[in-house]
Amino acid sequence: MIGAVAEGAAATAEFSTLVRRIWSRWPTTTPRSARFRLYSGIMYWQVLGQLATGQPPNPHYYLHSIQAIEHAWRDPHTEVDLIDRLTQTVRGDDADDQHVA
Predict the structure, then answer these.
(1) Which residue ranges in the chain fall short of pLDDT 50?
(2) How far is CA 39 from the centre of its chain?
(3) What's the DSSP call for residue 58?
C-alpha cells in the first residue's frame, strides 16, 4: 500500500482519507495528541505537492516521517523544526537517505 501511495496522488489522497476516517472513531484526548495527528496530514500534503510537480517523493518518506514524528513526541524540544524535517524527508533532501531524528 505504501508503494502505491508513493506512486500516485489518488492513492495518497485515498490513504489520507482512510487515516482521517479511522481517527474519527478514536478522538484525541489532549491538544498535544491532536497536534501530532496533524503532522501526518502535513506529511501527506507534502507528498501530494511533490506528485503535483511531477517529482516522486522519497521512497522512504513514510518510515522516516513516522520516525521523526515519534522522535518529536518523545523529545518535545525537537518538535520546533518538525515540519521542516517532514518536508525534507518527503523531498528526499536527506543527504544519505538516512533520517537523523
Answers:
(1) 1, 95-101
(2) 6
(3) P
Q: pLDDT tens digit string along 44-63?
A: 888 888 888 888 888 899 89
Between the CA atoms of 28, 74, 62 and 92, what dihedral angle is there, to the nearest 10 degrees?
130
d(CA 61, CA 5) in angstroms, rounded, equals 11
Radius of gyration of the chain, Cα coordinates, nearest whole angstrom: 13
Instruction: Give the predicted TM-score (pTM) of the model.
Output: 0.75
Are 32 and 26 in contact, with CB atoms under 8 Å apart? no
Long-range contacts of 26-35 (CB under 8 A, 24+ apart): none
Strand runs (DSSP E) across 5-95, as ranges? none
CA distance 86 to 1: 20
